[in-house]
């Protein structure tokens, strides 16, 4: 397994408990969405994975090593973190310099650095913007630059904080394909998100945080089946699930592919009885 968290507790200086005994593990290649209402502790949990926050008690193990005593620079070799606000991590004078900063700082050989930077620019659709200053780009483009800078570091774990916020449809599709590709490559992806459509389409597992603890941990489809008929949910169900309910379908449908498959089956005419003797 790549990430193991055991009894993690964290309190802010004002005494507020943000995380209270959180425990879970994630295998290599898993795609895990971390959900919850504002203030549930999602971003606080993510910041622990890169050493920005340190636990009051409990342990974190990443790639076989406990994070106790490991600095942010050392953790950056294993965990790539894409902030919700890209301006919190962009600093270079051009896109290509920004994307190249991580692998250069990690002292990758020059040929490997070039390979990683070019691959990251291509995969995020930024090659034509490589010489542009990041602060001259739109929010969605800056978020892709931040993502590319993490991809270029080639970490086994990638953490995304609200990745679809401020992105247009094409960028969300590109991001979803990247998440799928990373998992295929054996890299672990954890995403903090309120975007239930993105979660349903591209993630295998859901961890729901509530009041600093885990209220659900399991497959996306099982979670949707449980919450589809529950009132008062703080997270909006995927569009396909809501549309299926409007059509009176039994059981949750969460993805576009699932919806089209169900629609085709509902539209199939009943077989005509044979009149042959």
From TrEMBL:
<keyword id="KW-0547">Nucleotide-binding</keyword>
<dbReference type="InterPro" id="IPR050095">
    <property type="entry name" value="ECF_ABC_transporter_ATP-bd"/>
</dbReference>
<keyword id="KW-0813">Transport</keyword>
<dbReference type="InterPro" id="IPR003439">
    <property type="entry name" value="ABC_transporter-like_ATP-bd"/>
</dbReference>
<dbReference type="InterPro" id="IPR003593">
    <property type="entry name" value="AAA+_ATPase"/>
</dbReference>
<dbReference type="GO" id="GO:0005524">
    <property type="term" value="F:ATP binding"/>
</dbReference>
<dbReference type="InterPro" id="IPR017871">
    <property type="entry name" value="ABC_transporter-like_CS"/>
</dbReference>
<dbReference type="InterPro" id="IPR027417">
    <property type="entry name" value="P-loop_NTPase"/>
</dbReference>
<dbReference type="Pfam" id="PF00005">
    <property type="entry name" value="ABC_tran"/>
</dbReference>
<comment type="similarity">
    <text>Belongs to the ABC transporter superfamily.</text>
</comment>
<dbReference type="InterPro" id="IPR015856">
    <property type="entry name" value="ABC_transpr_CbiO/EcfA_su"/>
</dbReference>
<protein>
    <submittedName>
        <fullName>Energy-coupling factor ABC transporter ATP-binding protein</fullName>
    </submittedName>
</protein>
<keyword id="KW-0067">ATP-binding</keyword>
<feature type="domain" description="ABC transporter">
    <location>
        <begin position="3"/>
        <end position="236"/>
    </location>
</feature>
